Amino acid sequence: MSNPKAVTKPGFVEFVALMALMMSLVAMSIDAMLPALSQIGAELGVQQENTSQLIVTVIFLGLAVGQLIYGPLSDSIGRKPAIYLGYSIFFIGSLLSIFASTFPMMLAGRLLQGIGMAAPRSVTMALIRDRYEGRAMAQVMSFISVVFILVPILAPSFGQIILQVADWRAIFVVLLLLGMVSLLWFALRQPETLARERRAPLSASRVGRALREVLSHRVALGYTLMAGLISGAFQGYLSSAQQIFQFQYELGTLFPVIFAVNAAAIGLASFTNGRLVMRYGMRALARVALHVLCVLSVLFVVVVWAAQGNPSLWLFMVYLMPSFFCIGILFGNINSMAMEPLGHIAGVGAAVVGSLSTLVATPLGMLIGQAYNGTILPLIVGFAALGLGALALMRWAEGSRASASPEMESTV
Asked: Which pLDDT tens digit goes with each residue over 308-321?
């Protein structure tokens, strides 16, 4: 199955399509569930409406754990075996979710889905680096980013369409089938890209050294924690968006449309960032975006408080769209700045940065989501507080310019 001699290397278009499909399974597994959260919670005996949010947040815990596993593992046993292992865990998690009869069983399935999907999410990046470099790699990633933009926009509508003709378990069935299709395509068409002579012995000490380096480097640590705070705010939104739009604002089945509009703001920011980052630099764009996000959020806290937590939908959207545009700019730059000092340990360094930032983000997002009280005040206060915290971290990280790479202002 993994014999490279038996596999014909896919062309550029096919390769991009395959990588995009594999990496998009994470977003599909998260966002397609959103319209069904209340139904799942009701059928599985959830007493508190906010508890259903755990169906979203627990998958991030799985991703955090999985990223630490698959990076070093793929460097040791090869890219394809590591991805096969991840898919196997994802399939087990999907089956648990499909046949879940209790809420804890559902959460166990979602945790396994997250651990499993960490493989195609992280190892495909290494696989792309194996095959392409420089501008060619940038071109591949730019095409894949189009899928990243489209999937969060379309996934809730995809889930809503399934709910029109079947129950929520069918969403998990479709995700399982998509996983099987992508795995079969990958197994038949993609050869192994890491030659045996380039493989490194599997060692926990490599991860430990990378973790110590991230924790001891002011720039890497500052931007990693900053990424965790911004992602935490976004996870808080993901957790509570269905309750806010479907019930508080009584949009019902129109929820995916509003969700798509906000996701489009992040997509537009990703496109804009790609056009501006070479001209203005990552730090400058991130600094402006973060200041704007903080000002908007603090001001909107006052507005929401005056409206007793229930401003009009149009006013809420006037806040959300520019805020998500700022978050899109931040997503496009923070991780790159965290990785800039770690070029000599890029593979395992990326795993540590991704895992640590997710471990910071998930409990923060869970805290914001669980604080939902029928108003948007907890969400906006969360955005303001985490935005201000990220701003403090940015200033702390930039306080040691000598630790920062001199190329950071101009590299992508």
From this structure: 999 999 999 999 99
DSSP 211-268: HHHHHH-HHHHHHHHHHHHHHHHHHHHHHHHHIIIIIIS--GGGHHHHHHHHHHHHHH
Q: Is the pTM of this model over 0.70?
A: yes
Q: DSSP class of residue 144?
A: H
Residue 135 CA to residue 308 CA, distance in Å, equals 51
Find out whether 216 and 349 touch, Cβ atoms under 8 Å. Answer: no
Is the pLDDT at 295 greater than 90? The verdict is yes
DSSP state string for 314-360 = HHHHHHHHHHHHHHHHHHTTHHHHHHGGGGGGHHHHHHHHHHHHHHH
CA angle 238, 274, 147 (to 5 degrees): 50
The letter for the amino acid at 239 is: S
Tell me the C-alpha distance between 265 and 80, whole Å: 35
**Containing H/E element for 137?**
helix 134-165
Q: Which residues contact 15 (CB under 8 A, 6 or more apart)?
A: 131, 140, 190
Task: For residues 328-353, give the mean pLDDT.
Answer: 79
**Which residues lie below 8 Å from residue 398, measured CB to CB, with a gap of 6+?**
222, 283, 404
Evaluate if residue 411 carries a pLDDT over 60.
no
Q: Which residues of 66-103 are buried (b: 16+ CB within 10 A; e: fewer)?
A: bbbbbbbbbbbbbbbbbbbbbbebbbbbbebbbebeeb
| Separation between Cα atoms, residue 373 and residue 325, nearest integer Å | 26
Tokens 């108003």, residue located: 375
The pLDDT tens digits for 168-199 are 999 999 999 999 999 999 999 999 988 888 88
Measure the CA–CA gap between 187 and 183, rounded to whole angstroms: 6
Domains, the chain, with CATH or none? 9-189 (1.20.1250.20), 203-401 (1.20.1250.20)
Q: What is the pLDDT of residues 126-141, one digit of tens each?
A: 888 788 876 676 677 7
Q: Which residue has the tokens 């805290």?
A: 367
Predicted confidence band of residue 407 (pLDDT cuts 50, 70, 90) = very low
82 pLDDT above the threshold of 50: yes
